Amino acid sequence: MAKNIIVSNRLPIQLTKVDNSFRFTPTSGGLATGMNSVHQGQESLWIGWPGIDDDEVDKKSWVPLKKSLKKEGYFPVPLNQQEIDNFYYGLSNKSLWPLFHYFIEFSVFDEKQWGSYQEVNQKFANSVLKNIEQGDKVWIHDYQLLLCPKMIKDERPDVTIGFFLHIPFPSFEVFRIFPWREELLEGMLGADLIGFHTYDYERHFLSSVRRILRREVSFNRVSTGTREVVVNTFPMGIDYNKFRDAAKAHMDMVAAEKSDLKKQLELHKKGAEKGKLILSIDRLDYTKGVVNRIKAFELFLTKYPKYLEKVRLVMLTVPSRSNVSDYKRLKKETDEIVGRVNGKFATVNWTPIWYYYRAMAFDDLIDLYMNSDIAMITPVRDGMNLVAKEFIATRVEGNGVLILSEMAGASKELYESVLVNPFDLNQMADALLTAIKMPVEEQQKRNLSMQKRLSRYSVELWAKEFMKALKSKHHTVDESSVVKINESVKDTFVEKFKKAEKKVIFLDYDGTLVGYHQQPQLATPDQSLLRLLQQLSEHKDTEVAIVSGRDQEFLEKWFGHLNISLVAEHGYFIKHKIQKWHKKEIQNKSWKKELIPLLETFTDRTPGTFIEEKKNSLVWHYRKTDPELAAERVVELKTVLQSLISDDLQLMDGDKVIEVVSGRYNKGTAVSELIGDKSYEFILCMGDDVTDEFMFNDLPELALNVKVGKKTTQAGYYIENTEAVKALLNGLIS
């Protein structure tokens, strides 16, 4: 039975050592809760690091531990201390984490750590490959495993893979700084479905794919050449009912059931007439904006002194990565500024900031949420921020105000909150005043709207929506009518080739026999390709033709010595084998002079573009220009050209080129002329470009038409790349 395989850096368990053995207990959290609907018994497997140094576990302990984990559907990936230091504390958290949160100055790029990151990702991929079966779906999570999707896809192209990034994806200008940026993007594109919390992150990712990898991006789909990757937004929710029900239960508590924290919070409210508690909850991290928040609170007390002794900031800071130097400095700075503010404003009966540096139990969190009047959640950059959503869920009576950073992913959903720029201290200070003065009716109106949204799109629905989209992708992977050339199909081609007495092979050049080059004149054939073409042409009863948009001089220089036919400029020049070149007659010969000034204008306005003038065509190349600028210019240029060119000219939108040619001739008319009245029993035609569709359309039904790359096509087959093309041709004659 097909199963779901979840892959994350950590398994959702807490290991404890008892005597000489290990025991584990499940942990609760956003991801663990969301995955409950996906991770169900034998129908699911969760792969991840168990959270302990592999060197600390002897082999005798591993066997029963793995056995007990397996019963619960967990598969551990062991990591030693060196891997933990270099992969997790190193590249993941000293490079990717700060860079993706726009803290470039904190990013460290270390080759040793990058090597470890690759090795550990391969470890995770190998664990998946070891456990995967036909029909399984894989869901990989977060920035620690960006390379994993491709590693799995390379070995199992039949498997459907999803990937979700739980942190922001930075803008192109920031992401491009990463030294191994191409590898990260290629790794992510190994997935069939990629999810982000917000459209901004999706947009930044697609921009980097377009501008760094130069991949074709259409709306939210990326063409990898052989398949299509869907990129979409899935904002993660919370377990709304869990927080709502807990808040209701805490409301009904009698005095004996109340915690010391709850009593302390209630005492503050009684002691200050119309006093307000302002809540701040964060993990200790420079992305959370804790220091700016305290400074904004200090500014509020300075600007509005009448609120002295009437408000209190309750700060819960959960320890995080306390052994890392950047976090040690942040802890020291936080302690100092809290001390300074308290020293500046405190009285005998009032301390402006209550500061807790520790983790808190779930019930204590509920008490904090419920007894606070205002939640001030102002990260300088945050992928989502579930604390903001949890605060809203606990507002059973509908009152309370959320002040939220516009830099948090949650701000896209919680837009009824008081949104602030976390770098603008004045705005944050004034937002506190707005929150304090906000009428209860308005508080309830805002919160009710947000609560409806959060209750509907819970963390369970988030997981179900992602899996639904992944399942849909799974069903469409092999539904295309275009057949991929695998070993079985290749054998069929070879068998037909051997049986046929009269054979012809039509081959496009750029993108089919050689890869594309930013400078077309450098995309020349190597000796192995020339030798292959010669062997094909010398094979009994076999004719070969290169049908290209290249000019006559290029084809003659490189292939003129071979016993093959050549077609240049899409059919304007034709050379039958052992004959001379002949060209077609063109009536209108003045059109190029009229269009060149227009193309020059567009070239001047679009850096990286250039014009190629052939005898029968004009080509505007934009492979080297910025893809996003090119997308705008192409639409503009095509619109202008279509309004100018006459019926005897044709506009062709090729691979990173716009070409204007004679409308009477194309690759289809060329191959029809080459075939003439000959009766071939085997016809093979291969091409990658839109111009090759003319050949596919005009050839007889018996032709085996092959598109290079999985693109929209009239061809019946597709093949992955130029190397696969040459392998197929070699297979015909070997």
Fold and architecture overview:
With 734 residues, the protein is an alpha/beta fold. It folds into four domains: 230 residues, Rossmann fold (3-Layer(aba) Sandwich); 217 residues, Glycogen Phosphorylase B (Rossmann fold, 3-Layer(aba) Sandwich), CATH 3.40.50; 171 residues, Rossmann fold (3-Layer(aba) Sandwich), CATH 3.40.50; 72 residues, Alpha-Beta Complex (Hypothetical Protein Ta0175, Chain: A, domain 2). The chain is built from 25 helices and 30 strands. The strands form five sheets. A nine-stranded mixed β-sheet has the order 5-4-1-6-7-8-11-10-9, with helices on both faces. A nine-stranded mixed β-sheet has the order 18-30-29-28-19-20-21-22-23, sandwiched between helices. A six-stranded parallel β-sheet has the order 14-13-12-15-16-17, with helices on both faces. A hairpin with a 6-residue loop joins β22 and β23. α4 packs across α5. The longest helix has 21 residues. The relative contact order is 0.07.
